Amino acid sequence: MSRTAQSLQLWRWLFVPALASIVATLLLAAPFRLFGLGLPEPVFAMVLAFSWAVIRPSILGPLTLMVLGLFDDLFWGGPLGLWSLALIGAYGLALSGRSLMAGQGGVVMGAWYAAACCLASAIAYVFATLTAHAQPSVMAVIWQVAWTIGLYPVVYWLTDRFEDADIRFR
Amino acid sequence: MAFRDSPFQAIKTPLTWAAAAVAVVVAVVSVALLFTDHRTATRAGAYGAARGEFDEVMEPVTNVVSAPVRWLSGVGGSTGAYFFAVRQNQDLKRQVQELEHWRDAAIALKNLNLRYESLLKLRTEPPIPMVAARVVSDARGPYSDARLADAGSGSGVKIGNPAMSEDGVIGRIIGVTRTASRILLLTDVASRTPVLIDRSNARAILTGDGGPNPRLDFVRGFNSVKDGDVVLTSGDGGLYPRGLPVGVAARDYRGIWRVRLYSDRAAIDFVRILIFDDFSQAVSQAELADSVLPPLSKDEQAQMEAARAAAMKPAPTLTVGPAGAGSSSPAQATPTVAARTRLVAQGSVDPAIAAHAATTAKVPGHPKAKIPKGAYRPDEVLAPTPQQPGDQPQ
Fold it and tell me: Residues B157, B274: one domain?
């Protein structure tokens, strides 16, 4: 068991990270530009979509992800349901591969996380194209995916904190 | 019977499968939401009550959250201005010298324009009232580019109103609550804006794709766009007034025409929302559909008949309807143009159908030279009518 492992109390591994994700999204939505560049806009909920599936399977996980996805859609003014669908795609990939990830090092888990981010973006790209009848800019998608993958240290910290809290879910 | 003795005690739902099942349900619900969402429609109610309530709640929250960022931005701007004051001063002096020439030209042109307008009795656009608003949140992702502004229906803002920064057009309002409004930027993947090229007057559609420079699609004309051409709103469709500054045309590395937006020069913090009622919003579509045209006066009728007759020479014959089918005598089988015009004026025939018939009849043997069934009785309309004084011989 990791030295920093915490007990799997619902509020600790589910609600507090969800709240933190909302606050981070709010903060980075400030209209601020420095040297002509705006703030990055990573999808913070992607961290949770991956980590929650790895920490333990749960019915509340996908439901909370749906709420977070709808929050992102409403807050960013995007098509309703886009990010809840994309996040669920990432959650599904992590859930299906969690037995393969067990016992692997940080690099392997990072690769899985990057794959989950790419899958979620692919889903969002396809459905955004279908609903808007126009293809989003690939460069803009890559930019956002890169920033989201850059959040991997948070994923590692979160899973390390709760992964071994209950050996039934190993 | 105690629960531990129940046969259901042995039934255990595997947690992974349960989570997967919930994920599938969430995915299905999300897809259903996606295909029933009409966030960018201009009709009332399309934005949705949930979005409106959410924006109403988020406006004060994001206002508070962005306050320190605004302060920081102000401090950064002041610091930069302090350190680059000399250079800025030189630049501004040079710009003032250049702009003085343009100011004189603008005054002369304005005077000349007013003179032409009065001579030609032109109906010019009335001045458009504006509402100033502060942007309190910012979405810049590839799938949504939108801003939340702190002015809503309480300030007179309505869905469809254009929004501008101090540099140029930024987008239009897609959702309004009492205190907040959502602006869909020109760069959003769902944004389509009719624009024109100032130099060639060519029309195009500005299509957002989530990147900083939206595409110019459906450009009319041959070689009608050049690098550096100024792009303005065309006013087609009525959502935007004509002539608002949008940006400058530029080719990307694939050769696609894009627009470098004027509004991209600085952060969009304050915006002006134009309280612009386009024609489709100003009129009642129901009243338009139900209204009956007033009858023409005799003079108007004679003028109209003469103009129609002149335009239709050599006069074609309609080859449809029971009376016209297989008839060897067009004079007996078809009405005159003037008679058709008269029927339209009297309200006996739908003008659209008459126009359709006139158009298709111009081409001999036109495959679509037939009148829609059930619209009216062909024998009633196409039967020869007595010659009127204004009728021209076929």
Answer: yes
Verify whether the Cβ–Cβ distance A33 to B182 is below 8 Å.
Answer: no
The CATH number that applies at residue B263 is 2.40.10.340
User: Which residues of chain B lie closer than 8 angstroms to A56, CB-CB?
Assistant: 15
Q: Is A57 on the interface with B (CB under 8 A)?
A: yes
Confidence tier at A164 by pLDDT (50, 70, 90):
low
Q: Measured between alpha carbons, how far is A65 from A52 in angstroms, rounded to an integer?
A: 9
pLDDT band at B59 (very low <50, low <70, confident <90, very high): confident
Residues B221 and B181 in one domain: yes
Q: Which one of A34, A59, A145 would you mutate to disrupt binding with B, by most B Cβ within 10 Å of its Cβ?
A: A59
User: In the Cβ-directed half-sphere of A168, how many Cα atoms lie within 13 Å?
Assistant: 8
Count of residues for chain B? 394
**Quick one: closest CA in A to B183, which residue?**
A77
Residue B342 has pLDDT above 60, yes or no: no
Residue B330, in any domain of the structure: yes
- The dihedral over CA atoms of A150, A151, A152, A153, expressed in degrees to the nearest 10, equals 110
* A17, two tokens: 């990270």
* Same domain, residue pair B221 and B354: no
* Domain finish residue from B263, B282, B301: B282
Report whether pLDDT(A62) > 90: yes
Picking from A27, A33, A51, A96 by the largest number of B CB atoms within 10 A of its own CB, the best residue to mutate is: A33
Residue pLDDT, tens place only, B92-126: 999 999 999 999 999 999 999 989 988 888 777 77
Going along chain A from its start, the domains and CATH numbers come out as: 10-169 (1.10.1760)
On the question of pLDDT at B298 being above 70, the answer is: yes
Structural domain containing residue B276: 73-83+125-282
Taking the CA of residue A69 and the nearest CA in chain B, the distance in Å comes to 9
Q: Do A128 and B142 touch (CB under 8 A)?
A: yes
Check: CB of residue B206 under 8 Å from CB of residue B214.
yes
Task: Among B59, B79, B144, B265, pick the best mutation site for testing chain A contact (most A Cβ within 10 A).
Answer: B144
DSSP character string of B59-98:
HHHHHHHHHHHHHHHHHHHHHHHHHTHHHHHHHHHHHHHH
* Residues B262 and B230 both lie in one domain: yes
User: In total, how many domains does chain B have?
Assistant: 2
Q: Say yes or no: B264 and B344 in one domain.
A: no
Shortest Cα distance, chain B CAs vs residue A3, angstroms: 27
Q: How far apart are the first and last CA of chain A?
A: 11
Question: Is B42 part of a structural domain of the chain?
Answer: no
Choose one of B230, B262, B282: the last residue of a domain: B282
Identify which of B293, B307, B299, B308 has the alpha carbon closest to the alpha carbon of residue B354. B308
At residue B368 the predicted structure's pLDDT band, cuts being 50, 70 and 90, is very low
* Contact status of A134 with chain B (Cβ, < 8 Å): yes
Q: Which of A91, A124, A127 sits opposite B23 (nearest CB)?
A: A91
Q: Do A81 and B33 touch (CB under 8 A)?
A: yes
For B266-290, how does the pLDDT look when each residue is reduced to its tens digit (9 = 90+)? 778 889 999 987 666 566 667 767 7
Same domain, B156 and B265: yes
| Within a domain: B322 | yes
